[in-house]
Specification:
The chain is of the alpha/beta class and 224 residues long. It has helices spanning 10-22, 33-42, 59-66, 83-92, 104-120, 152-163, 171-179, 188-201; strands at 2-6, 26-30, 47-51, 74-78, 96-99, 127-129, 132-135, 140-143, 146-148, 169-170, 210-213, 217-220. Bound molecules: calcium ion.
């Protein structure tokens, strides 16, 4: 596992580098944003630990540039109380953040979690249930290789059900996750959407994937 640290304060960089090296990771350190971006974009690191305040280009600019070409997990180091930094970092594609100053075990826990997440989610992020395949990146759904045209909400609903295949989701849960509606009374919208979705993904095919669980909600699963 290779980790890149982009941190301009020598003491902080060395503290992190030493701890991670002792933890068995291969560590590279860059001390400014320009070299950091160059190393991150051209290297094969499993994780980047990125300070926000950097000489050259700052952490946000580095992250923006990096995300045009790379999906490598990024842990941002932000200053205490800078909530805006946290929000901004997430919006730009950071995977986690840690507020300075921090204790090393805290950093190590985040690093381990991010590396583990990276391993369990390979690049192919497609969701498959039986002959249904959803490509969340390209916003495409197919059954038996046949393209199915869906509205944005239908696509979100199908993706939710497929990602949690085999799990019964209540109308209230679905309403809050897909429509951001938090009232029991509005779940009729879910029933209507499920009906439309079924017409597209189940009706034309023999094997039905969306099932109603009476009095509870819906489950997407292949019942062979
Ligand atoms: Ca700094």
């Amino acid at each position: 596992m290779k980790i890149l640290i982009v941190e301009d304060e020598p003491k902080a960089a060395e503290y992190i580098r030493q701890g991670l090296a002792e933890g068995g990771y291969a560590v590279e350190v860059q001390h400014n944003g320009t070299d950091g971006l160059d190393a991150a974009a051209n290297g094969d690191h499993d994780l980047v630990i990125l300070d926000v305040m950097l000489p050259g280009i700052n952490g946000f600019a580095l992250l923006t540039a990096l995300r045009t070409s790379k999906e490598v997990p990024v842990l941002m180091l932000t200053a205490r109380g800078a909530t805006d930094d946290k929000v901004r970092g997430f919006n730009l594609g950071a995977d986690d953040y840690l507020v300075k100053p921090f204790q090393f075990p805290e950093l190590l826990a985040r690093v381990r979690a991010l590396l583990k997440r990276g391993q369990s989610h390979p690049r192919d992020s497609n969701v498959r249930v039986a002959d249904l395949e959803i490509d969340p990146v390209r916003h495409r759904a197919t059954r038996s290789g046949q393209r199915i045209d869906l509205t944005a909400k239908e696509f979100a609903l199908l993706t939710l059900l497929a990602q949690r295949a085999g799990e019964v989701l209540s109308r209230t849960q679905i309403a809050s996750l897909v429509w951001d509606i938090h009232f029991d009374s509005d779940t009729n919208v879910v029933e209507v959407a499920i009906r439309r979705l079924r017409a597209k993904i189940d009706d034309p095919f023999e094997a039905k994937l969306i099932h109603t669980v009476r009095g509870v909600g819906y489950v997407l699963e292949h019942r062979g």
